[in-house]
Amino acid sequence: MKEKIIYKKPDSLTDINFSYCPGCGHSTVHKIIAEIVDELNLREKIIGVAPVGCAVFAYNFWNFDVSEAAHGRTPAVATAIKRVLPDRLVFSYQGDGDLASIGMAEIIHTANRGENITVIFINNTNYGMTGGQLAPTTLLSQKTTTSPYGRDAKNYGYPVKMLELLSPLEGVKYLERVKVTDAASVIKAKNAIKKGFTYQMQNIGFSMIEVLSSCPANWRKEPVEANKLIDEEIVKVFPLGKIKDIK
Amino acid sequence: MANNNRMLIKGNYAIAEAAIDAGCRFYAGYPITPQNEIPEYMSKRMPEVNGVFMQAESELISINLVFGAAVAGARAMTTSSSPGISLMQEGISYMAGCELPGVIVNVMRGGPGLGNISPSQSDYFQAVKPGHGDYRLIVLAPHNTQEMYDFTFEAFDLADKYRNPVMVLTDGLLGQIMESIELKRKKPELLNQKKEWALTGAKGRKGQRIVSLLMDPGALEKHNFHLQEKYDLIRKQEKRYEKFNITDDTEYLIVAFGTVARVSKGTIKLDKDKRIGLFRPITLFPFPYEELKEVAKNVKKIFVFEMNLGQMLDDVKIAIENSEKIEFYGRPGGGVPTSEELLNFILKRI
Amino acid sequence: MTEKIIIAGSGGQGVLTLGVFIARVGFYEGKKVAWLPTYGAEKRGGFSFCYTVISDDEIFSPVVETPSTLFAFDQRAYDTYKIKIGKETQVIINSSLIKDFDRNNKNIFKVPATELAKDIGFIQGMNIVMFGVYFELKKIFKKESIYEVMKEMLKGKKEEIFSKNKMAFEKGIGYSNNK
């Protein structure tokens, strides 16, 4: 009987095992990106830019070209790569500390210039790698290691909604918020990222996909509980769905 | 304005034109006086040569655009002035760590803080002792418009040869002055050298990375030793300096770089007794310690002149063991000395 | 020969343009030249000055301590730069705008340049009127170089602009001869 392969590890992943915490959204998103790269046959023409944060090691897991960038400067690095090599597919992969805090200027100007790149934005409402500090995306009353009494707006301001912030900019062509808490939502997330890549290949312009991602370790929750928090609470602050799609 | 191969040109334009001639096809910059002619010129010139001009929204973005362009294998440059260079230090360190070539021009102005827009040499330290981490930049210090062109041109080959950022350290006076230069348009040597390390898509190979984060035990230490070997090679091969009016009879030696070196040449011309010579470091890293030591051996006094309050002075002291022989005169905060002023200082101290 | 010039005036008076013009004439005649402007301030209508050095030898210091020629376009410029006037300095002042100056200094040449420029209907030519005086007093440059460089600098502009500049230049020459 002939062996029929119905599922395999994507070619765009290396043999290195993910080092992320159990239940962390990064592993899922890394994998769906690798699947898309395989499906669209992009492995030899895609260049990724990894952030500073938990996903700083993304380049260990993807078997395609990946550059590091300084904290928050990820979109600037991706911009220049794309400008130099306009026929390649370029994406930045950033966490909420990287993108919404230290890299706020970079992401806004990259979006406003309408750079033809795709941004994958992982929002887990805290600084994961450094131990769970408050991020611009941290929910009100959420406790973190630097908001031990919970986030109050008076002291820390409000959770920043990046897609809604970027949406009015004319250079921005496609914005969607997704989650990866169950099989159905993972498929939606994959379709959204695929759409972002496809828009880039069609030279449509800047797109960004925000993924609500769980951080069980820093949220001090079991993975299932953490996903439940996204499904029930976080989506109320960061509503899912298309924020903008010019097509 | 061209006259055969001679051309009357402002220093800042000479830098821009040299970059184009050297095959620079990616430029990013942010407005700051006294270097605005460079981004203005590049915004017009880059599209003519199918290059990329980007007006960055900050110097942080400028340097990271240059980082990205270098990742993709392009010859890239950014220019700024002192406060802007402070902002770029983060990105420059990343470039050094990732071993990315690139050219950074610093048209220095007075500091600290916002300072003023007058010419200064206040950034010697931040050029030769740059940002975080144990790394070096190759630092070239032109002293006239001809060298603004020549050194910027050569900076691109040096950057590619050593996979290291190169800084052209100049100042507002040299940026703004217009004088004639001889244009020797030539082909940059390493322009077509294949950059196997660049990220251009993993065609027929595994994915590769450009990173400075090395967390495995011992990996970063090893990387630093590797970088150090490279800097040692640069020390061995790239030291540059000029000896002006140095003979067996030279009694007094001036050590100066950039603008102050050219002003010092005027001082030497004014000196009726012909006893003064000039040693001009051209590469501030690698600093020509041994060569300076040799020249300084038989002189009675060494005069270090700078447009700051003693930054290169430290390196002169490292070169010369008998530091009682050293006299220092500096003009900080945008002051430019005249040849007469320097001669008067020498005459008072001898 | 080394000619060290300071030109001083206010933004919009053509201070920097005259400096560049003289440098280009020097360059055209095969001399070493250096021109160094003030930067930044001139764009705000403030004080403006530049150094132009013309020499047979290499120019080491573009910063002029004691000028061989000082052009002062208005009172503020004269007041600021009078301390730089040396025994040998040829001073050319725009007497339309400078009333208070050292009347004992024999080296000060007064020319009502703004009025003369107005006479020919070309007030922007004040700087070139001043230059005409300089040309005649110093006699370093050839006349044809002046016209050649003028043409080069006005390339792409109307023929009329060239003839106005030429008139302004000749007005300056004429004034210095009739004095």
What this model shows, in words?
The complex is a heterotrimer of chains A (247), B (350) and C (179). Helices cover 38% and strands 18% of the residues of chain A. With 247 residues, chain A is of the alpha/beta class. Chain A has 10 helices and 9 strands. Chain A has a 7-stranded mixed beta sheet, with helices on both faces. In chain A, a hairpin with a 5-residue loop joins β5 and β6 (133-134). Chain B has 350 residues and is an alpha/beta fold. Chain B has 2 domains: 2-192 and 208-237, Rossmann fold (3-Layer(aba) Sandwich), CATH 3.40.50; 242-349, Rossmann fold (3-Layer(aba) Sandwich), CATH 3.40.50.920. Chain B has helices at 11-21, 37-48, 59-71, 82-98, 124-128, 145-162, 172-176, 219-237, 258-270, 289-296, 312-319, 339-349, and strands at 2-3, 6-10, 26-29, 52-55, 76-80, 102-108, 138-140, 165-171, 178-182, 209-210, 241-244, 252-255, 276-281, 283-285, 301-306, 326-330. The longest helix of chain B has 19 residues, at 219-237. The model of chain B has no long low-confidence stretch (mean pLDDT 96). Chain C has helices at 15-28, 75-81, 113-119, 126-138, 143-153, 159-177; strands spanning 2-10, 32-37, 47-55, 69-72, 90-94, 108-111. Chain C is of the alpha/beta class and 179 residues long. Chain C has one domain: 3-Layer(aba) Sandwich (Pyruvate-ferredoxin Oxidoreductase, domain 3), CATH 3.40.920. Chain B binds chain C through residues 1, 3, 6, 8, 33-34, 117, 172-173, 176-180, 262-266, 269, 336, 338-341, and chain C through 20, 23-24, 27-28, 32-37, 39-40, 58-63, 65, 152.
Please describe the topology of this protein.
The complex is a heterotrimer of chains A (247), B (350) and C (179).
Chain A: H1 25-39, E1 46-49, H2 58-61, E2 65-67, H3 74-84, E3 89-95, H4 96-102, H5 104-112, E4 118-123, E5 126-127, E6 133-134, H6 153-156, H7 162-166, E7 172-179, H8 183-201, E8 206-212, H9 216-219, H10 223-237, E9 241-245
Chain B: E1 2-3, E2 6-10, H1 11-21, E3 26-29, H2 37-48, E4 52-55, H3 59-71, E5 76-80, H4 82-98, E6 102-108, H5 124-128, E7 138-140, H6 145-162, E8 165-171, H7 172-176, E9 178-182, E10 209-210, H8 219-237, E11 241-244, E12 252-255, H9 258-270, E13 276-281, E14 283-285, H10 289-296, E15 301-306, H11 312-319, E16 326-330, H12 339-349
Parallel strand pairs in B: 3-4, 3-5, 5-6, 6-8, 7-8, 12-13, 12-15, 15-16
Antiparallel strand pairs in B: 1-2, 2-9, 7-14, 11-13
Chain C: E1 2-10, H1 15-28, E2 32-37, E3 47-55, E4 69-72, H2 75-81, E5 90-94, E6 108-111, H3 113-119, H4 126-138, H5 143-153, H6 159-177
Parallel strand pairs in C: 1-4, 4-5, 5-6
Antiparallel strand pairs in C: 1-3, 2-3
Helix pairs in contact in C: 1-5, 3-4, 4-6
